[in-house]
Amino acid sequence: MNVAIHPSWKEVLKDEFEQPYFENLISFVKQEYTTHTCYPKGSTIFAAFDHCPFDKVKVVILGQDPYHGPKQANGLCFSVSDGIPKPPSLVNIFREIQDDLGKPVPESGNLERWAEQGVLLLNATLTVRQGQAASHQGKGWETFTDAVIKKISDEKNDIVFMLWGGYAKKKGAKVDRSKHDVLESGHPSPLSANKGHWFGNKHFSKANGLLEVKGKTPIVW
């Protein structure tokens, strides 16, 4: 399986790639992609890492599963490729940015432009079968992404972690809060957002404020 991943991550995660669980995980993923339709396409499974080198990471946003509809998932959490209709969670993310920062909603739901500014858009599970949410959970991806979060927490300083919903908050247990900033709220999915757990969190202006205090360039959301 030919996947793209930035060389900086290959170095940081080389020990992880050699673990037995990771070898088992990759065998499982290859088998799934051979026998079922799975997302994202194989070459973009590690797109979050390819578009955002380790040394450029300033912000981490955690998702759960890739989108499981045709052509939606592009390897970055919450993101869809150009020309694909925005899923409900992404609609609510852009609505909050509009309310928070006064920015118009962009035509495209492709968040590669965030990644290239230093936002790691990391799903806990990096692959999924078509139409079957959570179908690749419990196979090893969560162990891998926990290790990624711990690496960032241990080896970097002053990262802004944006944790949306209960699942992301649990995943954030790996973050050393004495050296990083953590923003938490409900999930942007309609179920949570419409109950008042998402809108008004002002995470995008807060993240930029935290970056600026540390002398970092804010994100153009």
TrEMBL record:
Coiled-coil annotated spans: none
Alphabetical list of Gene3D superfamilies matching this protein: Uracil-DNA glycosylase-like domain (3.40.470.10)
Matching SMART domains: UDG, UreE_C
Keyword Cell wall biogenesis/degradation: no
Hydrolase among keywords: yes
Keywords: Cytoplasm, DNA damage, DNA repair, Glycosidase, Hydrolase
Compartments where located: Cytoplasm
SUPFAM superfamilies with a match to the protein in the record: Uracil-DNA glycosylase-like (SSF52141)
EC assignment: 3.2.2.27
Active site: 65
GO MF term set: uracil DNA N-glycosylase activity
HAMAP family (UniProt xref): UDG
Protein name: Uracil-DNA glycosylase
Annotated source species: Flavobacterium litorale
Higher taxonomy: Bacteria, Pseudomonadati, Bacteroidota, Flavobacteriia, Flavobacteriales
Designated gene of the protein: ung
